[in-house]
From TrEMBL:
Coiled coil: none annotated. Probably functions as a manganese efflux pump. This is Putative manganese efflux pump MntP. The chain crosses the membrane at residues 35-57, 64-86, 106-129, 136-157. It comes from the Bacteria. It holds the Pfam family Mntp. Belongs to the MntP (TC 9.B.29) family. Keywords: Cell membrane, Ion transport, Manganese, Membrane, Transmembrane, Transmembrane helix, Transport. It is found in: Cell membrane. InterPro entries: Mntp/YtaF, Put_MntP. It is a multi-pass membrane protein.
Length: 187
């Protein structure tokens, strides 16, 4: 597998992280830039870590993780997304309470859960990397950096969308996360 194929693999693996970053960036538009910049760091790190784990754990857990990855992703993103939809609808129906609802924080725990959920498929990629002659350090670094770069771009897109969506941003963001979870379950 050459450098171009690994780069394309990194782009494909980063798609879910890109979408979640867009969603988070307009839902949590009140967060400091330093907090928002944790998304590319977390998503990139987990996208690099999971293929590494898949490479070394290979056959031990690969079948188990592959069998349940869609369910785990749906549960994690479904809970987070459902909560976002609930809070967003509440804010739209009760604008007088908007100050309380809008103080939701993008927590480290939320970032970890989202990073794991969006990187589970990268574990299987690590298993396949083991079967090929690949420079593992280059591959996981390229995958991680590609994901981080895509997430930085997603921050800009999400900020623009957030301004366009206004008060509906949290509801839309929640549905995006739920949609990604459903896609993971079905695909």
């Amino acid at each position: 597998m050459g450098a171009l194929e690994i780069l394309l693999l990194g782009l494909a693996l980063s798609a879910d992280a890109f979408a979640v970053t867009i969603s988070n960036s307009f839902v949590y538009s009140h967060e400091k830039k330093s907090r928002l910049l944790l998304m590319p760091v977390f998503f990139g790190a987990f996208q690099a870590l999971m293929p590494l784990l898949g490479y070394f754990l290979g056959g031990l857990a690969a079948q188990l993780i592959e069998a349940y990855s869609g369910i785990v992703t749906l549960v994690i993103l479904g809970i987070i997304g459902g909560n976002m939809v609930r809070e967003g609808v509440s804010a739209l129906l009760h604008p007088e309470d908007d100050e309380e609802v809008s103080t939701g924080r993008l927590t480290i725990a939320t970032l970890v859960f989202q990073a794991v959920a969006t990187a589970i498929d990268a574990f299987a990629v690590g298993v396949s990397l083991r079967a090929q002659s690949v420079d593992l350090i280059f591959a996981v670094t390229a995958i991680g950096l590609t994901t981080a770069a895509c997430c930085v771009a997603a921050l800009f897109v999400g900020r623009r969308l957030g301004h366009l969506l206004g008060d509906r941003a949290e509801v839309v963001g929640g549905f995006v996360l739920i949609g990604i979870g459903i896609k993971a379950l079905l695909g």
